[in-house]
Amino acid sequence: MLPEIQIEIADFLYREAYLLDHRMYKEWLDLLSEDIVYRMPMRETVEGVGVDNVASDSAFFDESKAALTTRVNRYYTKSAWVENPATRQRHFISNIRVESGSGPDEYKVVSYFLYKRSRGSHPEIEEMLGERHDTIKRVNGDWKIASRIIIPDQTVITTMNMSMFL
User: Fold this and answer.
1) Strand order of the sheet with strand 32-43?
2) Domain limits, the chain
3) Of these four, 45, 52, 79, 107, which has the most CB atoms within 10 Å of its CB?
4) Which contacts (CB < 8 Å, 24+ apart) does range 55-60 have?
5) Which residues make Cβ contacts (< 8 Å) with residue 99, sequence separation at least 6?
6) By the 8 A CB rule, do 121 and 104 touch?
């Protein structure tokens, strides 16, 4: 793995976090490939060491680019009451690991995330943390997210709603 690729992909993910934190959702959509798979499977509480505790048959999110575009476009209407007032949010991305993917200019990327948000004048801060498994590829000279699997650490999501993008 070339160090330049690692740096480019890390910068790409930091730029993505900036767009989301500043509610630049239409610009964020431009970072996604047309055939993206955007999924957040549920965590399960299971006993045993080394047991897979990520559900294969149920998910919080399982969306296409069309579904994500619909969600984004709704934010720009008056019916997006969940974002009125708008949330203040931060996406912290760390532990970025990059490996070659299955094709040229395609990479498998694993990163950790910490998401925090607050609303209005409420003192409560909501948070979610976990790991993301991305496929990132270069399309016409630009990096695009072709696949994102979000694996939350929590089995019970304590956020008031799931209107965020991770």
Assistant:
1) 54-63, 32-43, 142-152, 126-139, 106-118, 88-100
2) 3-44+54-152
3) 107
4) 60/152, 60/157, 60/162
5) 1, 107, 108, 109
6) no
Is 86 in contact with 78 (CB distance < 8 Å)? no
Beta-bridged to residue 63, according to DSSP, are: 38
- Per-residue pLDDT, 123: 78
Calpha distance 154→166 (Å, rounded)? 14
Amino acid at 54: V
Residue type for position 78? K
Distance CA 70, CA 119 (A): 23
Q: Tens digit of pLDDT for each residue in 14-56?
A: 999 999 999 999 999 999 999 999 999 887 766 666 666 676 7
